Amino acid sequence: MGQTKIVLVGVGSTSFGVSTVADFFQQREMFLGSTFVLCDINAEKLQRVQRLAERMNAATGRPFQIQGVTDYRAALEGAGFVLVSTEVDRLERWKLDWQIPFRYGIRHVLGENGGPGGLSHALRTIPLVLGIAREMETRAPDAFLINYVNPLSRVCLGVTRYTKIKTIGMCHQINKGFSLVGQVLGLIPPTREHFPEADIARALKTKIDLKQAGLNHVTWMYDLRDKATGRDLYPEFRARLENMPPDWEPLTRRLYHAFGLFPDTGDGHVGEYFAYAYETSELKGYDFEGRAQESRNLDARVERALTDDSLRDEFLRHDSGERGAEIVAAILHNLNAYELNVNVVNNGALPGLPDWAIVEVPAVVNGTGANALRVPPLPAGITAVLNQQAAIHDRVVEAAVHGDRQAALQALLLDPLVTSYSAAEKMLDELLTTHREYLPNFKS
Predict the structure, then answer these.
(1) Cα dihedral angle (320, 324, 325, 326), rounded to 10 degrees?
(2) Which terminus has fewer CB within 10 Å in the chain: N or C?
(3) Comparing C-alpha atoms, which of 12, 1, 31 is closest to residue 324?
């Protein structure tokens, strides 16, 4: 029906590769005859995922032509879509981003996307993805870049500011919003899961119409309705929220009471952007060892699936909760599909924020790309919070692209988690020194 070339960069990633391959196979009728190129610099992981993809292909009537390359640049010619989820030494570098700020009095809860850890992370990933986008400008200038790399808003801003590549950032965290709403409304039992099962969120989406807007990981639920009748559910949600256990998402509830709308990403992610998050958030860092073990377990399962048909079929049926395959299908077939949330250049979609900011809003997706829908103005306090973060994004991008230490320092001094000038300077120096080999734009 629609043939294109789809390039997956970082296909060996634990949370991206196999699940994204499976997503496209589940949507295979939309892509019959398309070329699927799997890319990863780790040849062993690439070969493992490629062999599984070839087995999936054989089991489903060979809808794709499958290729594997260790150099993504060799795959870009003629590409229609490039999906990116790639980092270098992710867990070990993140662990350092988590540990170092504590030595300077920073009390953060995750250290991935906001605060000093988010700055350090972005200084590594913005040049990485920007390099891919610049190669696309030369080899596949009309292709769409669909980015999964965090910190998502900052990475997407770097690409949209410094290239002409059509860029869409995708995040599955809205699934957490559906889970939280479902718990409050009594549709599912209360849970402590930071990342709910995708099939639970998908089922709730058939019952609930949730609309959110903001910046990635700092989104606010501005409308909530019954999917079948259109009945406004926000009053019932507000009333039932007061009856939830006191230890249920305490930071999110504080923000709701203070700012008037419900943040729908959960305590973990939203806590990265508020200095007082540590007071209530139960998330005190990331389970690095647990994640590393998950990666090893996944590699072992993929290896077994190379000879076990039932396990291969489990992978084929796996619901990742991501929306990249649906986005590609909607663009390829000009579907005018409604999408709950995309991360795109604002251009007035979210009033009160700069036009250049990367905002997370609903969109209509068709042959022209993801077209952001204009949403109502958010309350003044929320708009102020978002503008503060947008200003930080601006400074971070300039620091990452130009190796500008002054801009990086400004990003820290604007950040609500940083309360000491001298600590900011010393912390920045240590982060830059520690990650020097991953910061090609910083000369010293």
Answers:
(1) 100
(2) C
(3) 31
Q: What's the maximum distance between 2 C-alpha atoms anywhere in the chain?
A: 62
pLDDT tier for residue 196 given thresholds of 50, 70 and 90? low
- For helices 288-305 and 43-59, give the axis angle rounded to 10 degrees: 50
pTM for this entry: 0.96
Q: Which domains are assigned to the chain?
A: 5-89+116-172+300-324 (3.40.50.720)
pLDDT of 19-40, one tens digit each? 999 999 999 999 999 999 999 9
- Summarised one tens digit per residue, pLDDT across range 39-85 is 999 999 999 999 999 999 999 999 999 999 999 998 999 999 999 99
pLDDT digits (tens, 9 = 90+) for 339-374: 999 999 999 999 999 999 999 999 999 999 999 999
Q: Are 408 and 123 in contact (CB under 8 A)?
A: yes
How large is the average pLDDT for residues 408-429? 98
Spatial separation of the C-alpha atoms in residues 320 and 335, rounded to whole Å: 22
- The tokens for 367 are 């042959």
Side chain identity at 135, as an amino acid letter? E
3-state SS of the chain is CCCCEEEEECCCCCCCHHHHHHHHHHCHHHCCCEEEEEECCCHHHHHHHHHHHHHHHHHCCCCEEEEEECCHHHHCCCCCEEEECCCCCHHHHHHHHHHHHHCCCCCCCCCCCCHHHHHHHHHHHHHHHHHHHHHHHHHCCCCEEEECCCCHHHHHHHHHHHCCCEEEECCCCHHHHHHHHHHHCCCCCCCCCCCCCHHHHHHHHCCEEEEEEEECCEEEEEEEEECCCCCECHHHHHHHHCCCCCCCCHHHHHHHHHHCCEECCHHHHHHHHCCCHHHCCCCCCCCHHHHHHHHHHHHHHHHHHCCCHHHHHHHHHCCCCCCHHHHHHHHHCCCCEEEEEEEEECCCCCCCCCCCCEEEEEEEEECCEEEECCCCCCCHHHHHHHHHHHHHHHHHHHHHHHCCHHHHHHHHHHCCCCCCHHHHHHHHHHHHHHCHHHCCCCCC
Using pLDDT thresholds of 50, 70 and 90, give the confidence band for residue 14.
low
